[in-house]
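Researcher: Next sequence.
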Amino acid sequence: MSTIGDVAKIAGVSAMTVSRVINDSGYVKQDTREKIQKAIMQLDYRPNMVAKSLVTRRTNILAYIVSDISDPFYNKVSKGIAETCLKHNFSFIICDATNQQILNSQIRMIGDRQIDGVIFHDLDIKQEEVDNLLSLGMKIVMLENETDLERVFSIRGNDRKGAKLATSHLISKGHKRIACLKGPTYKNNSMKNLSFQDSFKRRTWIDRTMGYEDALDESGIAYKMFFDGCVESSMGFSLAQDFVRHWQTIPIEERPTAVYCESDILALGVLSKALQFGIEIPEELAIAGHDGLDMTSMIYPQITTIKQQRYIMGQLSAEMLIDFIEHGQKEGSKVLDVEFAQGQTT
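Model: Next structure:
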């Protein structure tokens, strides 16, 4: 295994000069820097990251903490983070936080292990927790946090616009009785056995429900019908199937001819049970989802949905976090646009 001395010998410089280049800790002439970089490549030299971190006081490691790592929404987000980290010579770890106790443990862990920065996604992080991490030198980006926080940068998708796009599309197809299959919008929800994420995730559902109502109100449609769903995959899928069973009991003249589902998992649940019962899609029941999960385009019929920029969300959050690590934490927010994706269910 090559050493820093081997690199110095080939480049014709001192080991200290090589160290300055590796740690970017002092001035080195450009031609000398190029010689050292060439020698590093020639020897396939790997710096000792533990020793380097003692000099730079950085580990070049990011943490990505999500509320449920099994949720298919996060795959492209994590891919965007991973590829951005690779580009900038950073590593990252994914942490699953499926209840408050585990989340508290994860927050303590990243503080104890000198992680340089953290991306929190779909959680209900409080200002006090952010302030404590910032005081330790941690840099932070929030993705779709339940509340807006000070001193950090936050990113989220435009949920209200997406819901309005989906509902307006159904209206454009001639539907006037459009149901909304939504998540819990009130803290004291009557549903039992809600997941950790469903215990606090109301902002997304509220915004999407408002978008649904915006489209109906602007079109002068008074008909509104709401059904319970949730974010947790298996329970949400089951609740969506319950909607179809109930839909069959509604008199035809009152029955919704279309449903806007506030997540693609809910839309998949509706579609599966509708096909099982022989309901014609979209002739008897049109279905629109939200999120743009990969599976919506892999099945037949393909689900009409609202695509979120999941890869961009991960890429941008990692780029911003690395910039904060190198130049200091910044405060602000960004809302990512959404895109309508026509499928075969509307």
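Model: The longest strand covers residues 61-66. The chain has three domains: 4-56, 61-155+310-336, 159-308.
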